[in-house]
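Consider the following input, taken from an annotated entry for Deoxyribose-phosphate aldolase (Glaciihabitans tibetensis).
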Amino acid sequence: MNTTPSDAVLDAPALARYIDHTLLKPEATTADVAALVAEAIELGTYSVCVSPAMLPLALPEGTDLKVAVVCGFPSGKHHSAIKAAEAALSIEQGADEVDMVIDIGLAKEGRFAEVEADIAAVRAVIPAPRVLKVIIESAALTDDQIVGVCRAAVAAGADFVKTSTGFHPTGGATVHAVRLMAHTVGDKAQVKASGGVRSYDDALAMIDAGATRLGVSGSAGLLSGAAESGSGSSY
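Applying the prediction step yields:
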């Protein structure tokens, strides 16, 4: 787990280790993803996050870069068996982590047992140490719904709860949602803030609220903000 004490210094290399360097545009090409990988390695990010059709990725020998892939993306309105099959194929093709989208409608109806079953179906095909992150689309949910979904994710064995796809019209991550999610899951899971995390200050705010991973598409710009802040800046 990534942790950052309140009195620690968070410079660009340290912040990069929180980042899933992300490219999920439907028009992304093989060349775009190759460039993403090269940039991620240059920046030192924890992983790249891509669409499942882009797998398998050709990674340079010796890199510690992880590969994350989305599942049931972006709507979550897929049968659980389809999500599980997609996740299983992604693992077979080299994914280290799977970011699945829940059925948001089930959450809004308070059908949390069914949300849990959906997550559990995907968890069942992702063996440890592979990681399952659960995208809850927090901006579309009430606080009570966020709590219910986070509890369902923990009960189903998820490693992370994640705020957003970045594609929903209600918006992306907020400090309030991240803090609520972190409080709900406690030490049973981690929190990924994704959607609208664009600046160094955004990143620090999300980490301060409890995020241990960040989904970022503009990682170079965000990390340049960390560099400009100076390595002596206290976090």
